[in-house]
Design brief:
This protein has about 350 residues and is mainly α. The chain is built from 5 helices and 3 strands, in the order H-H-H-H-E-E-H-E. It has 2 domains: about 1-100; about 195-345, Fusion Protein Consisting Of Minor Coat Protein, Glycine Rich Linker, Tola, And A His Tag, Chain: A, Domain 2, CATH 3.30.1150. Helix 3 (about 45-190) runs antiparallel to helix 4 and helix 4 (about 195-270) crosses helix 5. The longest helix has about 150 residues, at about 45-190.
Length: about 350
């Protein structure tokens, strides 16, 4: 029963034609048997058979037409079914292709997300390295400052000791002067004769000569101490200048290393946004001049000295604009409104 209903649903016109054929047969039989008039005595039986035969031919003709119409309808239904199946297959194929594209897009987005996460992790690592380097340089600078303060304290201590020694020598000289005055006073009191006075004068002259010699030696000693002090101060200043130069050179090397990594990060981001044109070949390069504003936003791009064709040059310019905003430098001092780098895609 279900198969019959399914066939009726698939070929409705065939069902209609079959019903019409059965109705026609029923009408023909009804009129030929019930409503046909009684044969007259003069009519031959051959005519009645001929009339019935004619009616049956007409019925057969109608049945043939209905069968042809039914076959045509069945062919149309089969053609429609095949068209529906083809359309269904096309839709299924399009659905599979759409699903495949969706999965590829999801995979691309996942890879892009992983790349962004790696880039963020790498920036964090660079930032940590920069902070560690700054901390080390600050510690080194503090140690040098502490050393300079210690040398200054030692210098002050030596200066204080020198002044104390000068005061001691001055007191000793004063004491010697007092003793000499006492000796002179006693000699004057005891000198009663001119010979003794002359002898005292000679002694005084000798003492003055010795005093002059002593003063000359003292002046020479002081000059030597001043020379040594100047040499120590000059050596200290030279050491401080050398240390400062070393720190400046280390800072410059660090900035150069950061600048190289900054340029490499810009070139890498441009390459990620570069779409290789069909005419591109290995070994192509360009010199790229970029003008940017704080924040990395690109406002102008100039591509020159390209080893490729015009299509390659335009693709590089497009990649630079797509890479905006450019990566921020690891040190603000490295930022420049105009940068130049070589673009060499792998």
């Amino acid at each position: 029963m279900r198969d019959l209903l399914r066939e009726i649903a698939r070929y409705p016109m065939a069902m209609v034609y079959a019903v019409l054929v059965h109705l026609a047969l029923a009408l023909v039989l009804f009129f030929s048997l019930e409503w046909s008039p009684a044969p007259l005595p003069s009519q031959p039986k051959a005519n009645i058979v001929q009339a019935v035969a004619v009616d049956e031919k007409q019925v057969q003709a109608e049945l043939s037409k209905l069968k042809k119409a039914e076959a045509l309808e069945k062919k149309k239904a089969e053609a429609q079914q095949k068209a529906d199946e083809l359309r269904k297959k096309r839709l299924e194929r399009k659905a599979r292709e759409a699903e495949k594209k969706r999965r590829l897009e999801e995979q691309r987005l996942a890879e892009a997300k992983k790349a962004r996460q790696k880039e963020i992790a790498r920036k964090r690592e660079l930032e940590q390295q920069r902070k560690a380097e700054e901390k080390r340089l600050a510690s080194e600078k503090a140690r040098k400052q502490k050393e300079v303060a210690r040398l200054a304290a030692e210098k002050a201590k030596l200066e204080k000791k020198r002044k104390a020694e000068e005061q001691r020598l001055a007191a000793l000289a004063k004491q010697r002067k007092a003793e000499e005055a006492e000796r002179k006073r006693r000699a004057a009191a005891e000198a009663k004769r001119k010979a003794e006075e002359a002898k005292r004068k000679a002694a005084e002259a000798k003492r003055k000569a010795a005093e002059a010699k002593r003063k000359a030696a003292e002046a020479k000693r002081k000059a030597e101490e001043a020379r040594k002090r100047r040499e120590r101060e000059a050596a200290m200043r030279a050491e401080i200048a050398a240390e400062q130069a070393r720190l400046d050179a280390a800072e410059q090397r660090r900035l150069d290393s950061l600048r190289n990594r900054y340029m490499a990060a810009i070139a890498a981001k441009v390459e990620r946004n570069w779409i290789r044109p069909p005419s591109a070949r290995p070994g192509l390069s360009c010199e790229v001049r970029v003008r940017q504003i704080p924040g990395g936003e690109v406002i102008d791009v100039q591509v020159s000295h390209c080893t490729g064709d015009e299509t390659f040059r335009r693709s590089v310019e497009t990649a630079v604009r797509k890479a905006s905003p450019l990566p921020t430098p690891p040190d603000p001092r490295l930022f420049d409104r105009e940068i130049i780098f070589d673009f060499k895609p792998h």
